[in-house]
Predict the structure.
Amino acid sequence: MKRYFRLIALFIRATVQVQLEYRSGAVGRMIANLLSTATTILLLWAMFQRVESVGGWSFDQVLVLIGIVTTIDYVVEVWLYPSLSKITTYVQRGEFDVLLVKPVPSQFLVTFRYLQVLDIFGLAAGLAIIGTGMYRTDSIEPLNFLLLALFLIAALVIIYSLYLALSTLAFWFTRIEEVASMIWLHSTAGSFPVTAYPPWARLLFTFVLPVAFVTNVPAQAATGRLSLEWGLGALAFAAFALCGATLLWNLAIRNYSSASS
Amino acid sequence: MSIIHVDHLCKDYQVHQKEPGLAGSLRSFVRRKYQIVPAVKDVSFDIAQGEIVGFLGPNGAGKTTTLKVLSGLLYPTSGKASVLGFTPHERKAAFLKSITMVMGQKQQLAWDMTPGDSFLVNQAIYDVSETDFRRRLGELTEMLELQPVLNKPVRKLSLGERMKCELAVALLHGPKILFLDEPTIGLDVNMQQAVRRFVADYNARTGASVILTSHYMADVEALAARVLVIDGGQLVFDGNLSALVAERAPNKVLKLQLAHPVSPERLAVFAPVRMVEGLTAELLAPRGNVAAIAARILNDVPVADIAIEDMPIEEVMGQLFQRKPVAEAAK
Amino acid sequence: MTSWRTIRALLALNYGISLQYRAQGVLWMINGTVPLIMMLIWLQLAKGGSIGGYDATTFVQYFLFMFLARQSTPTWVIYLMDRGVKNGELTPYLLQPLHPVWHYASQHWGELMARLPIILPILAVGLTIADAWSWSLLAHLPAFLLGLAMAWVINFIVHMTVGLIAFWSDNALGYDTVIYQLYIMLGGVVIPVELFPETMQRVLAWTPFPYVLDFPVRVMIGRIEGVDILAGFAIQLFWIAAIGALFNWGWRKSLRQYSAAGA
């Protein structure tokens, strides 16, 4: 176990060094994140100048939702995207063999190789928004924070599984490079409560693009509106997704090792 | 009458300095330190129409930088460069249409399409008439044996085939000057010879001037009567290659194949010994005296075979640069 | 400037390349489905009555044509310029008697030509299902196309100007996201510009953003007519000229900076 933590520390150090080299990239990203968050909130505010509620949620409740999305986006950008997007590169260049030979599970290597911890700004922004929304809806209570943490983790597990599963497709369709777009689409759709969509679309956004579990549930948890069914559903979905993605990954590796030349 | 005129040319690069380790990274994040690296220092020369000239020198000596200034890609830090009467970095259309540059590792051909497709695009970009295009395409196809590869996607071609197509696409507009930067890098021996033959042929047929850089001696030996040796950004030699060899390599090498082992001390009586290994020995003899020394050795030492050769040019160059000789190894 | 012959040749080449990567293209298009998502949201919201003059049908029309506009104007030129500078891919372009702009533009046009056969049917199907098509809209088509073409140019030049950062800084891609966000959010992709609060609309009118996507779409669905359309074109032309001039100046300065790396 200690070995893995040491590896993660090494990976982080290496990535930080590379990032510091590209310093204006770091600054650029900070500005981009700040701007993106600001504009999103601006748009939300503009929308609420015209309507009273969206999908039955008030402005502050949707604000919490936006905060959740921002936080998840941060994790994706800082961790999932840099690491997992390399999968397609490895497959294309046949570099996977190098990974497979290492005495550490390939899934671990792929997952933790590129942790870009310098983009702390996005995380701070996301958490600040969640906090503000919770404050404005009088939801500042220990229980809510606990539930929020729990379901945020569940949400991240789901996103991770989704991302991994889609990236694993790279083994069969070598050029699946734009998985990131699908995740981003997920974020856009997830910025609104599921109830804001037409009834027929709600199914789509619960099980196909699981925004209901990923963004709505943590937001409801934070504002004390989470029902038991939805909470359990989210946890079950997360477990199911992680198993599915890991199975798919192992299947792909087995396939790859036996087929590659 | 010179078509390329270079006068006290200087070119400096700005390189960002970084210390290793995490602390160094943090420091350089806050305050960048730049170092000015002079790449070309006060170089002057003239080249006439129809010449083939080789720029020779170790890696990082400034050969490619000079070429890039001449082709308009870089601005001189000071000094002057004039090509065909134009100032290269102004990049006027008429200037760009009269030159061409082929760089070993960069390509013009569209990766996913056939060479033929890229040829057509270049025809349009360089405004080549249909008759000229057809004629040149025919000649180049014949000279480079392109027939079998013209309609295959570029990504499916071997490195050698790609290089030939790169040469072709670069010459479709009939430029008066060819800049070739490391044209044979990464190619196998056969292909290297083919490229050299082609360049010599092209120069003979069209009278186009050729400037090539290389650190393969064979390239320069085969093609360029005149070499410019650039080392550390400075021009250290400009003239005839054989004159260079004669001046810097006053000795010839006597290669002996011995009938049975002979001690180095015994051989040293006749001439300085370079090496002895088993039944092979090499001695150095001044040019004027070589025949006499050879005769004495043959009389006295049991020799199965003897050869008299020039000192390998790499060594000549190496001594010129006062560094280890330039290796002929594949890159 | 360049010749029609050159453009035709470049288009043929780039269209050929784009066709080969059509599967990729579909994935890229997923980015452009934001208008469709927003359409669903606004549709639900409009169930309670029209909002700011937009009823359900208007929303459908607006966002479907916004989808078309959005899919016709994507720009990845900052990414191309960043790669061009970092890997020295720009160098071969600089040796040709052709401004690299034309290479970049043709790549985009080739891609657009390959994607239209996918975009147009989606538009048609959407309009049919929602019963939002009316033949009177056809009259607006020419003005729409002109506005869209100019919108494409504005968007492209803005990106190219921002892309000049690639010559001066290690990582221009961060700024790509910035511009992209602005263009999406403020261009009408999420909220029709007319539905922004008054003050915001007045501020935005001073920027090019509303004129890139929102303006042509509103022309198409008939919310702008007559003289106002001409005024809109004039403003688009102004932006093209202004940003074009800025780009030209910046390009000259940036080339001086460029040290053809990689050799």
Notes: Chain C has 13 helices and no strands. The interface with chain A takes residues 21, 23-24, 27-28, 30-31, 33-34, 37, 40-41, 43-45, 51-52, 169-175, 177-178, 181-182, 185-186, 190-191, 195-197, 200 of chain C (CB under 8 Å).
